[in-house]
Specification:
Blueprint: E1 15-17, E2 20-22, E3 28-32, H1 38-57, E4 64-68, H2 72-78, H3 86-95, E5 97-100, H4 114-121, E6 126-132, E7 148-154, E8 164-165, H5 170-183, E9 201-202, H6 208-223, E10 231-236, H7 245-259, E11 264-266, H8 267-278, H9 284-291, H10 300-321, E12 330-336, H11 337-346, E13 353-356, H12 358-371, E14 381-383, E15 388-390, H13 409-422, H14 425-440, H15 446-449, H16 461-470
Parallel strand pairs: 3-4, 3-5, 5-15, 7-13, 10-12, 10-13, 11-12
Antiparallel strand pairs: 1-2, 6-7, 6-14, 8-9, 14-15
Bound molecules: NADPH dihydro-nicotinamide-adenine-dinucleotide phosphate, 2-oxoglutaric acid and magnesium ion (MG).
Length: about 475
């Protein structure tokens, strides 16, 4: 079944039932070490995870690691250009849950992203990236502890589908010709627009299915959070891209109000309801005027549409959501993508789950990680209905590779997410305690050491892992 690798002789498989993992006490878990600093951070992370499981379960539970190959290491073993061997795909398919270090993607030419390929091959449609603060972590922000968000990033489509054509290529030029001469003129709203002939062309598909399954998972997650964090914000650039980014927002609201009607309220509905709560005799027209600041300058048709919206909301949910009941529901709102970047800095405590398309989530997860201490503190999980791969938000950080200096925190915290996914909360809690206490004690790697006031002598990557284990207690 495998060409060049041999699974562990002990251990059992994780299986999935209705999207939930069924986990034996001795699961076999494939891991990819990763390129660049993967050589430093993976061994450190593995050591911490093993120590936590051993301490939490005293030998009754154990991870049986299965080394599989991707990236440079795979080419060394399998031959030139064998970046993602079939053995690796077979192992992840067979064992369901895997963890990986970062993998290199060259800019401009060469192979497309192995990281993205893995997400697409296993349909890991939800990229979950929590950004929360560990006390004592230095940050460029005054109140980094106020940020506690979980980014739910759609993980399989958008520009990451990688459908693009090079400038000057035969198909690219043909496509531009068809667009300029046939499709754009056939679409009146595009007027006389034309694509410059020397353009590269990329396609940005955003599907209803892809958007809705991501938002569905985000709302399901919100249901498990404490009441004050039960909020899902749909992030989009729908003011500019109405049929892709704008549609993501609309489809997100549709999932909330059709599949989770009793559990959710949209921000706009909450305004309509609270207007009536404040003034029970308010007319539909006055209510409409208050929810739409530009109401008075709208066309009669548009005004009538908003009045109808108010009427429908009151008719359909006043009984279940009115009189303040909506305050107990999950709030679903939306924010424009550029605005959310400033909002997480200026009003961080107003946000909880941020549901995004692929590209916006990629940008936003690095930015949010920076607020709570940098990419060394940014974990992640790629989750599908029948498998999951855990990995940090950051890349290979090549200039630090092999120096035993990089912060392994992000991969260790990705391991914590994996332990929680397995239901091994006791081990996950030990790692979080160890990491939190090490940081609070000023035992940190270079990235955090240089930000501390006064600066401290940095620990090596491997020493930081040891410090975490010592702080398990
Ligand atoms: N999922 C994946 O495997 C990903 C892979 N990549 C790939 O990684 C390669 C390198 O990408 P690049 O743009 O340099 O981005 P990286 O995220 O690899 O690194 C950029 C900078 O972020 C900081 N950083 C990253 N990781 C850590 C860490 N663990 N601890 C402390 N600081 C960290 C370092 O800053 P400083 O030097 O200032 O301390 C580093 O130089 C590319 O090929 C890219 O495509 C990128 C993202 C995700
Ligand atoms: O695969 C890559 O090279 C980049 C991926 C990335 O930036 C991410 O997943 O956040
Ligand atoms: Mg990224």
């Amino acid at each position: 079944m495998y060409d060049k690798i041999i699974p562990p002789t002990t251990g059992s498989k994780i299986t999935f039932k209705k999207g939930e993992p069924i986990v034996p006490d001795n699961p076999i878990i494939p891991f990819i070490r990763g390129d660049g600093t993967g050589i430093d951070i993976w061994p450190a992370a593995q050591k911490v995870l093993d120590a936590a499981v051993a301490k939490a379960y005293k030998g009754t539970r154990e991870i049986n690691w299965f080394k599989v190959y991707a990236g440079d290491e795979a080419c060394d073993l399998y031959g030139t250009y064998q970046y993602l061997p079939q053995d690796t795909l077979t192992a992840i398919e067979e064992y369901g849950v895997a963890i990986k270090g970062p993998l290199t993607t060259p800019v401009g030419g060469g192979i497309r992203s192995l990281n993205v390929a893995l997400r697409q091959i296993f349909d890991l449609y939800a990229c979950v990236r929590p950004c929360r603060y560990y006390a004592g972590t230095p940050s460029p922000h005054k109140n980094p502890e106020k940020l506690d968000v979980i980014i739910y990033r759609e993980n399989t489509e958008d520009i990451y589908l990688g459908i693009e054509w090079k400038q000057g290529s035969e198909i690219g030029d043909r496509l531009i010709k068809i667009l300029n001469e046939e499709l754009i003129p056939a679409t009146p709203e595009h007027g006389k627009k034309q694509i410059p002939l020397d353009s590269g062309i990329g396609i940005k598909p955003i599907s209803k299915t892809g958007s809705q399954r991501l938002v569905r998972r985000a709302i399901q997650h919100a249901l498990l959070l404490p009441k004050n964090k039960q909020q899902v914000t749909l992030v989009h650039k729908g003011n500019i891209m109405k049929y892709t980014e704008g549609a993501f927002r609309d489809w997100g609201y549709e999932v909330a109000t059709s599949e989770f009607r009793q559990e959710t309220v949209t921000e706009r509905e909450s305004w309509i309801l609270s207007n009536k709560e404040k003034n029970p005799n308010i007319s539909l027209e006055d209510n409409a005027q208050q929810i739409d600041p530009g109401f008075n300058s709208l066309t009669p048709e548009k005004k009538a549409q908003i009045v109808k919206e108010v009427e429908e909301v009151l008719n359909s949910i006043w009984a279940t959501h009115g009189n303040g009941q909506w305050k107990e529901k999950i709030m679903v709102n939306d924010r424009i993508a550029d605005s959310i970047f400033q909002q997480i800095q200026t009003r961080p405590d107003e946000y909880s789950i941020l549901a995004t398309m692929n590209l916006n989530g990629d940008y936003l997860s690095d930015a949010a990680a920076a607020i709570v201490g940098g990419l060394g503190m940014g974990p992640g999980a790629n989750i599908g209905d029948s498998s999951a791969i855990f990995e940090a938000t950051h890349g290979t950080a090549p200039k630090h590779a092999g120096l035993d200096r990089i912060n392994p925190g992000s991969v260790i915290l990705s391991g914590v997410m994996m332990l929680e996914f397995l239901g091994w909360q006791e081990a996950a809690d030990l790692v979080k305690k160890g990491l939190g206490d090490a940081i609070a004690n000023g035992q940190v790697t270079y990235d955090l050491a240089r930000l501390l006031e006064p600066p401290v002598e940095p620990l090596k990557c491997s020493e930081f892992a040891e410090a975490i284990i010592q702080h398990f207690g």
